[in-house]
Design brief:
Strand content: 25-35%
CATH topology of the largest domain: Jelly Rolls
Order of helices and strands: EEEEEEEEEHHEEEH
Number of strands: 12
CATH architecture of the largest domain: Sandwich
Number of helices: 3
Largest sheet: 5 strands, antiparallel
Distance between the termini: 22 Å
Radius of gyration: 18 Å
Strand order of the largest sheet: 8-7-10-5-12
Structural class: alpha+beta
Shape: globular
CATH class of the largest domain: Mainly Beta
Helix content: 10-25%
Number of domains: 2
Length: about 200
């Protein structure tokens, strides 16, 4: 379902381009979720989140990627979820433009590779320091090897979600409840836009 939102876009200010799309679906093994997308047809800005039908507690998920099967494990990430690969000291924390997604482990690793490409372009643009380039190459190599199912040194995918809406669907994935302190220290992602009437 799509409806026009009677408010300006929070990014470009267009008064007529904001739309709200909702879609309710039963995601196998996850239960009923509502996908909510707020988007601007004028500038392309969008914010998406996945909201489960039932209230959730703050949750952490962990999967050591050590088998080709793990690369196809389903991943649901909410806008509030922090994604980590601790062995590589990589972390993506939710920010003001954070979006939720449904992917698999390989897709999450590809997202990290895409960010490394952006960082590399920035390093090159600001003086191409050899030690920074070597560090990026090492991270890229480890991620690429994992995606190619070469597990000389397995890596771990962690999801830390204070909203409890993120999941890793695999028999080898472990779930735990986050402590109140852990949940309080994690960023919670974008704040919904406030519209005045």
């Amino acid at each position: 379902m799509e409806q026009t939102v009677n408010a300006p876009c929070p990014t470009c200010g267009d008064a007529d381009g904001l739309r709200l799309r909702t879609h309710i679906d039963e995601i196998p093994y996850f239960g009923e979720h509502t996908q909510v997308t707020l988007l601007c047809v004028a500038c392309g800005w969008r914010q998406t989140d996945l909201i489960p039908a039932e209230a959730q507690t703050p949750t952490g998920w962990k999967l050591e990627i050590s088998s080709p099967r793990h690369l196809t494990a389903r991943v649901v990430r909410s806008t509030a979820c922090t994604v980590r690969i601790p062995e590589l000291d990589l972390e993506v924390a939710p920010g003001a433009s954070s979006t939720g997604y449904v992917s698999n482990v390989e897709g999450v690793l590809q997202r990290f590779l895409d960010v490394l490409d952006i960082v590399e372009r920035d390093v090159v643009a600001h003086g191409d320091l050899p030690e920074e380039r070597a560090a990026l190459d090492l991270l890229r190599m480890r991620l690429t090897m994992t995606m190619a199912a070469v597990f000389d040194a397995p890596v771990t995918l962690e999801l830390l979600d204070p909203s409890g809406r993120s999941l890793i669907l695999d028999d080898d994935a472990s779930q735990r409840e986050l402590t109140a302190e852990e949940a309080d220290e994690l960023p919670t992602g974008p704040e919904p836009p406030v519209f005045s009437s």
